[in-house]
Amino acid sequence: MSDLLNCAQFGILLADYLDGTLAAGERDALLRHRDSCPECAMLAEDAEAALALMERVAEADPPPVLCAQILAATTGSWTLKLRSGGVRGWINRTFAPVLQPRVVMGVLLTAMSVAILLLGPLLHGDPRQNAAPLQADLSPARVWNALDNRTNRIVDRALHGYESMRLVYEVRTQLEDWRLQWQGEEEATADLPASERGRP
After folding, report:
1. Is 29 exposed, middle or buried (0-12, 13-18, 19+ CB in 10 A)?
2. Helix or strand or coil: residue 184?
3. Which long-range contacts (CB under 8 A, 24 or more apart) does 44-48 make?
4. Residue 186 is assigned to a structural domain of this protein
5. How many domains does the chain have?
6. Which candidate, 1, 35, 79, 84, has a CA 20 to 30 Å from the CA of 45?
């Protein structure tokens, strides 16, 4: 890596720097850029402060009521369909193992990926040049690699989204706990006699 980083490269390497996984040369280049760029120095300072806050905050468990509401909202209607009688109930019970959200999502993502792989060359560039995919493009190894790469990117995006939502939930939970604690202290102070309020 070159000795000079731009701000975009700094932003990309900042997470690895905070995790302590950067190589020595990259770390030195990042620190030189941080020392020379005030905006990136502020970004690094904010990221370090956020990381320190996340390490201090205890991991929050979701309230049991929330878990029960999510389960009821996602599985309740399906349970009613399985209990229904007649042909519709029989069809629902027969296909229940296949119609699980994971299976349906996997089949849809696979079909979408194959469609993109097959139709992608037709949708870009000169239609006369890309009238049909080349035989090399349809080789099983190349199709599998492309499908695997796309699947990994989709999974990475989903995991990143989940981690982001989890962080927001943890921060909101901690803020709510602090608000309730502060409110409790205010109420306790209000209940004290006037003569004791001024004491430390």
Report:
1. buried
2. helix
3. 44/14, 44/17, 47/14, 47/15, 47/18, 48/18
4. yes
5. 2
6. 1
Give the range of the structural domain holding residue 157, as residue numbers without chain letter: 150-200
DSSP secondary structure letter of residue 59 = P
Whole-angstrom Cα distance, residue 16 to residue 29?
A: 13
Give the CB-side neighbour count of residue 146, counting CA atoms within 13 A: 17
CA distance 186 to 126: 71
pLDDT in tens, 76-130: 555 555 566 677 777 767 776 666 777 778 888 898 888 887 776 665 554 455 4
Question: How far apart are the two ends of the chain, measured CA to CA in Å?
Answer: 57
In a domain, 102, yes or no: no
The predicted pLDDT at position 1 comes to 47
Q: Which value, to the nearest 10 degrees, does the dihedral of the CA atoms of residues 184, 189, 190, 195 take?
A: 170
Token pair 């492309």 in the structure block, residue? 146
What pTM value is reported for the model?
0.31
d(C-alpha 121, C-alpha 127), whole Å: 9
| Domain-located, residue 126 | no
Report if residue 157 sits inside a domain: yes
